[in-house]
Each structure stands twice: as C-alpha cells, then as structure tokens.
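Hey all, quick one. A colleague (J.T.) asked me to put the flavin mononucleotide job into the tracker so the inputs and the structure tokens live in one place instead of scattered across chat threads. No bug as far as I know, just bookkeeping. Sequence used:
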Amino acid sequence: MSSNLILAPMSGITDYPFRRLVREMGCNLAFTEMVSAEGLLRKGRSFLKIEKDEHPVSVQLFGSDPNILAEAAQVAEGMGADAIDINMGCPAKQVVKTGAGADLMRFPEKVKGILFEVRKKVKSLITIKIRSGWDGEHINAVEISKIAEDCGIDAISIHPRTRVQGFRGQADWSLIGEVKRAVHIPVIGNGDVTTPPLAKKMLEETGCDGVMIGRGALGNPWIFRFKNSEHWGREPAMPPSLEERKNMIHHHFFLIQAHCGEKGAVKTIRKHVYWYTKGFPGCASFHSKLSGLREKNALFEAIHSYFDFVQRRNQCQSFESMENRSVTG
Ligand SMILES: Cc1cc2nc3c(=O)[nH]c(=O)nc-3n(C[C@H](O)[C@H](O)[C@H](O)COP(=O)(O)O)c2cc1C
C-alpha cells in the first residue's frame, strides 16, 4: 500500500516551502494553510500561490457564506488546486465569531447549504475538515459527515476533539471509526499521530483511509519518509542525525528564501529551528537567543555553534557511558 500520510493544514506553517519540503520527504498530499474565502476573492493571487511542482495540493478555505465560499472555491480551482477543503474545525475565537470554522458544526442546515453551493461550482475533489462537534454535549461529527456525503463531498477528515477542547486532552480516535462506519466516502483520521507506528495504529483501530499529520511534522519532515505503510509498524532505525538536521534547516531556509526573500526567510525559519531542536540539551537558552537574531549570518553562526555544542555533549556522554560500562563490566 502506498503512503496515505497527509500533511494537515496549519496556519503559519504549511506555506509553499514547507509543503515542498514534506513532499520531497515522501508526503503525497499536502494542505495549504487556511485561506479566507473573502480574502481570496478580494486579493486573488497575492493571497494564495500554488506552484507547478506541488501537485496534488488541497486548498483549505474558511468562511461562512455559501456563495462566497463557492466562488472562492472556483477561484482556487482556477489557480490549480487539486482539491478544495472547507474548514469546519478551526476553534479560534476570531474565526468562530464570524460563523466560520468549528461554528459551522453547530448549524447542520448551514453546512448543507454551503456544501450544496460549493459542489455546484467546483468539479475538483471537495473535502471537509471537521472536529467532533462544538462541545461534549454536542458531538455531531457523524451527522455532519452524512450531510457531506449526501451533498456529493469526496472525503472527510476528522480531528476528534470538540471546539471547546481546543487541543486539550486526547483525540478520541473511536469517533474516527464511527464516522468511517457511517459513510461510504474516504475518511482521513487526524489527531496526536507523531510517529509512523501511531499512524499504523490509527489505521488499524479506526479503519480510516488515510492519516493526517499536523504537529508531528513540526521540525520533523522525516515523518513522511516511509512511503510504504507496511513499514509504519517500526520506527526508523535511526532518528535523523545532527548533520541531517542541520542540513535540513539549511535546505528549509533556502526554500523559504527563494519563495519570499532573505528577510522573510530569517523570520520564518526561526520558529522551525525551534522545532528542529526541541528537547535538545541546553535548548532553552539557544531558543531565547534565536528570537533576537534578525540577520542571516548571525542566525547561522548561532545555529552552527549550538549544533557543535550538542555534538560535543553527545560525544562526552557516549564516552562516559563507555567508561561506566567498562567499570561495571
Ligand atoms: C499551528 C497550527 C495551525 C493550525 N492551523 C489549521 C488550519 O489552518 N486549518 C485547520 O483545519 N486546522 C489547523 N490546525 C489543526 C491541525 O490541522 C490538526 O487538525 C491538529 O493539529 C490535530 O492534529 P495533530 O495532533 O496531528 O497536530 C492547526 C494546528 C496547529 C498546531
């Protein structure tokens, strides 16, 4: 079975350079950051860019007006989107107060109206991304999924937490299984998958057709490197080495720089460097230093000297553990 690991839409993260990076690592389908339907209609190409080398790509739209969403979907399709995803899960206050994102799940009739209009205007694949429901008393993912299927929607991805939960607690994978059993269209599970074995576990436990990965890809594009799900049962033999990580940071930086220039690249790569080095020895002081670095040379000097420090520390530790073994042995 070929890879059905999918990159989740993540605002501020899944820009073109990141999508390109994960594609190079083996990811077959990536979602854009969520794009305002209204903004896309007003600003067009300056609001959304799809490059020739990134197909298939799914453009995620958010909004609450059926006609605006349908028109924006048509625009995105015209710009080269292979699939259009309608965001029905964003929990952010500024989104739900406009009636978009997770707020839509409170109004199944409105969902029907939106999906009916979007389906009329767009020939490409249309998907929706939902949560469990608004809160623990209103879990209606199955109801919304059935509506989507009836409206001719092609697939559903579900992150089984409620809007009220935000990112707290654990994703309730059993709901992914419930949705899968309730509809005949593909269901993509999402939530708390941070390793290939967890992806395999989600597939087996829920019967879902694909696994969508969000936070597990931050600082970790390697998560997509097993193209074949038969290998997901085991962790990669070795986590990426320090050298591989450092090279990935360079590569990631150059992809961003080619896309939006040096200044923007310095600003954007800093948050990724944070994730590439999360949990490393002495990372707290390195991370606080990072935020003050505004110039490319200074940034890379700091990165190199930090990686040298980590390497020296690792060498000392393996030397110490060898000594301990020879003392105890
Ligand atoms: C920084 C960040 C930005 C996100 N932006 C979006 C977004 O634009 N659209 C969306 O549907 N979900 C968004 N999400 C939710 C993810 O797509 C995903 O559903 C969620 O993180 C759970 O999956 P995970 O446990 O694999 O991270 C975002 C999540 C994070 C952490």
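Adding what we noticed when we looked at it: The chain has eleven helices and nine strands. The pocket of flavin mononucleotide is lined by residues 8-13, 33-34, 60, 87, 89-90, 129, 159, 190-193, 213-216 (CB under 6 Å).
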